[in-house]
Amino acid sequence: MHTRVSHISLVCSWSPQVRVSARTGRILPIPSESAETMDYKTPQGYSDNKEKDTKASDVEEITFEPKLATFEMDIMEQMDIQEERTAKPTFFY
């Protein structure tokens, strides 16, 4: 028989989210197997792979510059193509 479980977020120092039994209202511990992956048994036991892992500094670097332009407008700007035609209005229903 399965237990109905609801997830409740609590503000506490030891766990950001706990599982609570819907029937009894008791807090259910999260199994340690939930932290296991193919790479490691525990998160503390994981060691970075120098050849394959991306450095944190590279991940945190902001390289995208948002601007209000379509893909075609971006390509035209990069290739110095000037558009003299005007687009007719488009209506979406």
Largest sheet properties: 3 strands, antiparallel
**What is the overall shape?**
elongated
The count of strands amounts to: 3
SSE arrangement, N to C: EEEHH
User: What proportion of the residues is helical, as a percent range?
Assistant: 10-25%
Order of neighbouring strands in the sheet with most strands: 1-2-3
Parts with pLDDT < 50 across at least 5 consecutive residues: none
The tally of helices reads 2
Using only C-alpha atoms, the radius of gyration works out to 26 Å
Q: In percent terms, what proportion of residues is strand?
A: 5-15%
CA(first)-CA(last) distance: 51 Å
Which class do the helix and strand fractions yield? alpha+beta
What does the average pLDDT come to?
81
Short description:
The protein is of the alpha+beta class and 93 residues long. Helices cover 14% and strands 13% of the residues.
Description:
The radius of gyration is 26 Å and the shape is elongated. It contains two helices and three strands. The chain has 93 residues and is of the alpha+beta class. The two termini are 51 Å apart. Helix content is 14%, strand content 13%. The chain has helices at residues 56-60, 71-78, and strands at 5-9, 17-21, 27-28. The protein has a domain at 1-29. Strand 2 and strand 3 (27-28) form a beta hairpin. A three-stranded antiparallel beta sheet has the order 1-2-3, with no helix packed on it.
